[in-house]
Design brief:
By secondary structure, the chain is of the alpha/beta class. The protein has two domains: about 55 residues, no CATH class; about 200 residues, Rossmann fold. Helix content is about 40%, strand content about 20%. It contains eleven helices and nine strands. A seven-stranded mixed sheet has the order 5-4-3-6-7-9-8, with helices on both faces. Strands 1-2 form a two-stranded antiparallel ribbon. Strand 3, helix 7 and strand 4 form a beta-alpha-beta unit. The longest helix is centred in the N-terminal third of the chain and has 15 residues. Bound molecules: glutamine. Glutamine (GLN) binds next to loops. Glutamine binds next to loops.
């Protein structure tokens, strides 16, 4: 079999991605070498991968690595796969830090999963004091492995529910991509999602249960000039804005993702109008 034959067996873009992974070549190389014979072992791995894909098993878990905001993360069953949309939080937080002239802010990622947000923040703000919390032991293990692998061991990953492991600490930037899927989302759920940890996806009937606990606690842990950044589901902006104002936040601002859906809310504690 040659590369071109294998690429016809499944969605082309994904097939190129999978083959480039097993061949340890760039995707461009795979596209440009359709006539190149493929070793038996690689063909076997490729066929195994597409069998899993046909069952809806996530591509990211098959590959075992995934890119997020300039870093490559290890991902495996038991942790949420980092999404492209979540890069909006990192991008906005970094921009805010630069605007404020902060070189070494204190940063907290609540519910770190693979460590994506915390590690990307640390990479781009090398002097920052970055902490992450997550209730999942499995996430803790993977995030620490990612930190080691990326040479970003400076990030402090702690196990615990929301803010329970950072009692009494204040932060300049608090980011979170908490579970926010609703019961309705569960019913409409794509097959892929069923392989990801429930705990990282779902949050009660309307998907708001975690925000209800997280938002008031975030208020107590954010410095006066700090910024809170929350990822939200596309129908949740109004309700989450209300929870933020109720908790005392001001400058509450909704931002859309690249697909044009409401995806993030930023909020401050007070001071100047936005
Ligand atoms: N954004 C994810 C999705 O739509 C959900 C992850 C989350 O709940 N934070 O699949």
């Amino acid at each position: 079999m040659v590369i071109g034959d294998l690429l016809r067996l499944w969605d082309k873009r994904e097939s190129v991605h999978i083959l480039s992974h097993y061949l340890m070549q760039t995707r461009g190389y795979v596209y440009a070498h359709a006539d190149e014979p493929v070793a038996r072992k690689v063909e076997e791995l490729f066929r195994r991968a597409i069998t899993l894909r046909k069952e809806g098993y996530p591509l990211q878990y098959i590959l075992g690595t995934w890119d997020f905001y300039t870093i490559e993360l290890r991902v495996q069953e038991g942790v949420l796969i980092p999404r492209k949309e979540t890069e909006l939080l990192v991008d906005t937080a970094l921009r805010y830090a630069h605007e404020q002239g902060w070189i070494a802010p204190t940063v907290l990622d609540v519910g770190f999963g693979t460590g994506a947000i915390a590690l990307a923040m640390q990479k781009h703000l090398p002097a920052a004091h970055v902490t992450g919390t997550d209730i999942s032991r499995c996430a803790l293990q993977i995030a620490k492995e990612n930190a080691r692998h990326l040479g970003l061991e400076r990030v402090r990953f702690l196990e615990g529910d929301l803010f329970s492991s950072v009692e009494g600490e204040g932060f300049d930037i608090i980011l979170s991509n908490p579970p926010y899927l609703s019961q309705k989302d569960r019913e409409r759920m794509q097959k892929e999602l069923s392989f990801e940890p429930e705990m990282a996806l779902f949050a009660g009937p309307e998907g708001l249960d975690i925000y209800r606990r997280l938002i008031p606690q975030a208020y107590g842990h954010l410095h006066e000039t700090g910024l809170l950044l929350l990822e939200i589901g596309e129908t949740q902006a109004e309700e989450v804005c209300r929870l933020l104002r109720e908790a005392g936040f001001s400058c509450v601002c909704v931002q859309k993702d690249l697909a044009g859906h409401d995806r993030m809310i930023t909020a401050k504690k007070g001071g100047e109008p936005c």
